[in-house]
Amino acid sequence: MELYMPVVALGIIATGFAVFSIVMSAVVGPKRYNRAKLDSYECGIEPTPQPVGGGRFPVKYYITAMLFIVFDIEIIFLYPWAVAFDNMAVFGLVEMILFILTVFVAYAYVWRRGGLEWD
Amino acid sequence: MSSAAVLAAEFQAPSFEYSLLSPLLVIFGVAITGVLVEAFAPRGSRYLLQAVLAVLGVVGALVATVIVGLNLVSRGGGTAHGSIAAEGAIAVDGPSIFIWGTVLVLSLVSVLLFAERRLEGGVLSFAGQAAALPGTEAEREASTRGLEHTEVFPLMMFAVGGMMLFPASNDLLTMFVALEVLSLPLYLLCGLARRRRLLSQEAALKYFMLGAFSSGFFIYGIALVYGYAGSMNFAAISAAVSGRAGGEGLLLGGIALLAVGMMFKVGAAPFHAWTPDVYQGAPTAVTAFMAACTKVAAFGALLRLFYVAFGGARWDWTPMVWVIAILTMVVGSVLALSQTDVKRMLAYSSIAHAGFLLTGFVGAQQVADVGIGEITSLQAVLFYLVTYGFTTVAAFAVVTVVRDAGGEATHLSRWSGLGKESPVVAGVFAVLLLGMAGIPLTSGFTGKWAVFTTALAGGAWPLVVTAVLFSVVAAFFYVRVIVLMYFSDPVGEGPTVATPSILTTIVIAVGFAATLALGVVPGPVLDLAAAAGEFIR
């Protein structure tokens, strides 16, 4: 049980932060309502009425989200590596550099082929 | 002791056998370089760069495979040799090397088919701009500008890498990752046909949905087997299975679910439903690659999983495989009879072949079970995969050259009278079909002989009787196509045979030569399969 105390502590802190942020923004933040704010959130496209046959919708959000996930995964692997860095020595460093390079290859492809251009 | 100290005390720095895994690293390196080429090379030079890079990469990986194969160390005294690499995740042993070699040679042939440009008038047979909706102005513009997706080459290389990792994985998680690495590029490639794009996109979507579904089964099976054995590693699972650790329900459920995932990939009934649609809709070069290489890789993985990890539970899974094998042969052979499209017919034929392969697999004859000079089940299946792979690639390559105004003329009625139009192409296709039917002096006969012998030795004679019976049924529809080509009159304009560039010609020639050579002198390849020995544990 003792081992899990940090996790519990982290959970409490995270919950506290979330509650604090929501309550504070409700209390302190300015309230200016408009139509867009009351609409349901649909990644920037009009939720209704749907175009006939589904229509075409922009996929740029999707690309951005995918890129985010790529970096997200990268971070997930960086954390345990950072923890075990001392033990892994040069091997760990080389492997991690190779890993980050391959992630950047995907990034370079998206960048060069215009995936980062918004319009 | 603080948690950091605990970690430091238990921590063992991992190691990675770069030289043993060099074939894999070369292929993945080429795939990644291909993505960089796509990003930085000017559009005009991409095709040549990508094609040359892919060919060189596969050749390089082949050389590396041969070097690694020659330097395998004996393990455990028996015929098994090789070592477990990457912290127990990958087994580089004789069968792995054999399958790597097979996949790489077949990929080399397929790359040439991918790179064929002459048949479509100077562009690849893949969609110019996959994002353009079929039948729109954007599509026509992409076509007039001569756009091409040269991404197909790196995508194919990623798939090849997955296909090499899949049969060599030595734990369930690595196997799952490899399964995805080989599948995801294939889903994409299936949707990239230049002609009949709706059919192609439909095929890609079907393949993806059903593939994702079967992956779900596979990973659920992994969870159950992990629950039973307490490990993902094949050696540990094997130990738990032999020791009958208790909780048989978990094990049986796990085996069944893993089998669903595997049988989907090899295209065995009743998990075959995707095969005809996908084989028909996908660009024919991709179909050829997929039909040959995926089957080799998936059967390799199937054998390793069931022989190594679940070898101790053989009596539990054999009945299941019996049923699947019989069903697969029946469905493949009987439904092929009613097909009117040559690609669909070849798809059903590949299902039937999966059934014959399963017949060899179910015998489960190991070195200890057979006498000197007799072949084991593993060797028989490996040999059959080689014969099947070459014949299939060549058959689909022939399909790409029989064309009319709308592209490939895949409807069988368009093939009537082909013997008069082009005796050479019809003759080659006839030999390939006879090879698939298993007529003596072709590779199909020696392959079938090998798997049926081991199945008989394993006591699966009812299965062999069924297999022989349905070989005859299958022979009927192969011969029907030959009759159609030679003894029917052309309908209307009749088929035209386009003259392909040297690339497709090489593919057809290699497949044709292998079909005959392996039928007349199967010895060298059988010896190679024998040299591969057993799986290491």
From TrEMBL, chain A:
Protein's UniProt keywords contain Ligase: no
This enzyme's EC code(s): 7.1.1.-
UniProt keyword terms in alphabetical order: Cell membrane, Membrane, NAD, Oxidoreductase, Quinone, Translocase, Transmembrane, Transmembrane helix, Transport
Enzyme class of the recorded protein, top EC level: translocase
Pfam families cross-referenced by the UniProt entry: Oxidored_q4 (PF00507)
Locations listed in the record: Cell membrane; Membrane
Bilayer topology: Multi-pass membrane protein
MF annotations from Gene Ontology: oxidoreductase activity
Known partners and oligomeric status: NDH-1 is composed of 14 different subunits. Subunits NuoA, H, J, K, L, M, N constitute the membrane sector of the complex.
HAMAP family per UniProt: NDH1_NuoA
Similarity comment: family membership: Belongs to the complex I subunit 3 family.
Identification of the protein by name: NADH-quinone oxidoreductase subunit A
UniProtKB/TrEMBL annotation, chain B:
Protein species of origin: Nocardioides jiangsuensis
Compartment(s) of residence: Cell membrane; Endomembrane system; Membrane
Superkingdom of source: Bacteria
HAMAP family the UniProt entry points to: NDH1_NuoN_1
EC number(s) from the headed UniProt entry: 7.1.1.-
Annotated family: Belongs to the complex I subunit 2 family.
Known role: NDH-1 shuttles electrons from NADH, via FMN and iron-sulfur (Fe-S) centers, to quinones in the respiratory chain. The immediate electron acceptor for the enzyme in this species is believed to be a menaquinone. Couples the redox reaction to proton translocation (for every two electrons transferred, four hydrogen ions are translocated across the cytoplasmic membrane), and thus conserves the redox energy in a proton gradient.
Chemical reaction(s) catalysed: a quinone + NADH + 5 H(+)(in) = a quinol + NAD(+) + 4 H(+)(out)
Transmembrane parts of this sequence: 20-40, 47-70, 97-115, 175-193, 205-229, 249-274, 286-307, 319-338, 345-368, 380-402, 423-441, 461-487, 499-521
Subunit structure: NDH-1 is composed of 14 different subunits. Subunits NuoA, H, J, K, L, M, N constitute the membrane sector of the complex.
InterPro entries reported in the protein's UniProt record: NADH-Q_OxRdtase_suN/2, ND/Mrp_TM
Gene expressing this chain: nuoN
Residue ranges constituting the NADH:quinone oxidoreductase/Mrp antiporter transmembrane domain according to the UniProt record: 169-471
Protein name as it appears in the record: NADH-quinone oxidoreductase subunit N
Keyword vocabulary terms for this entry: Cell membrane, Membrane, NAD, Oxidoreductase, Quinone, Translocase, Transmembrane, Transmembrane helix, Transport
Primary residence: membrane
